[in-house]
Amino acid sequence: MTRRQFMLSAAAAGLLGTATHAQPASKTAKAGVLINGSPGPTIDTLRMGFAKLGYIEGQGFALEPRYAQGQLNRLPALAAELVQLDVGVILALGGPASRAARNATSTIPIVFSIVTDPVVLGLAASMDRPGGNATGITSLDPEQAVRQFELIRALFPKLTRIGILSDATIPGVDSSGLAPIERANDAAARKLGMQPVIVKLSDGPSPDLAGPLDGMVKDGVEALLVLEVPIPFNNRKAVAELAAALRLPTIFPGGQSDAGGLITYGTSVADTWPRMPIIADKILKGAKPADLPVEQPTKFELVINLKTAKALGLTVPPTLIARADEVIQ
């Protein structure tokens, strides 16, 4: 028998290790999830998104969620936990979670969302070519801050002092003491002739909300813009209730009309969650985060709560109501 005949015969007999039974069992794909807050609809949306793509938990796939429960100082340890689990990708929701994941690993791919400016936060070199191990979806809309203040101005033409509620734990603070989203809103308010008063809530499972809001009112604040950052987001309903009790009109980011504020405007972070498994799927199949452009929002919503307006004794101009995507009676 020639060598060529032997090789063909061996291959046919499965002696070269090509038979299925000779291969090791496939490794379970793991996706870590790092969330600033607590379990909720986010993880259900992600789970459903993966399932639609054929990733079924317990059938060669495992989802590994980790929750900071509003205590953002826990994020580095939770991120390190996911790295130790050797997950194939980390889905990070929010700037603090995304930064914690990026600090924990430079090799495991990261898919982020609820991030205002990934370039400023050091998560990506550019929107088109992230260049590192992270990509995802940004809620960045350079015009959103101006548009929100224009809505406030339409309701209160003579308003001069506007409160901006933020979060003391968000990253990217510069020498002025302000993070990127705070700087953008500060500049937008001043552009429209308003004096911004920025107050940052402190981290913790039960942050003090009443004190800061009461302090704003005493400081002459006439309306309140709530930023899309972790602590106000996790406590949005309580913020809206306390502000209403202080007769302080509120405007919330898109997707937060459930808070009960007077106005909700902008992109909805909930719209970004279903995209995360799709991006993760590309990465698990071999795509590099460095080459996947950061996705940007395309859907905006304006919700006006007339029930809240009535409780505050306010009349919303018909022209503003006509622009709304939804009016809550």
**Second-tier CATH architecture of the largest domain:** 3-Layer(aba) Sandwich
Q: Summarize the helix and strand pattern as letters.
A: HEHEHEHEEHEHEHEHHEEHEHHE
User: How many β strands by DSSP?
Assistant: 12
According to CATH, the fold-level topology of the largest domain is: Rossmann fold
Structural class, please? Answer: alpha/beta
Beta-strand share of residues: 15-25%
Neighbour order of strands in the largest sheet: 7-6-8-9-10-11-12
List its salient traits.
Rossmann fold, 34% helix, single chain
Short description:
Helix content is 34%, strand content 19%. It is α/β, with parallel strands linked by helices. The protein has a 7-stranded mixed beta sheet, sandwiched between helices. A 5-stranded parallel beta sheet has the order 2-1-3-4-5, sandwiched between helices.
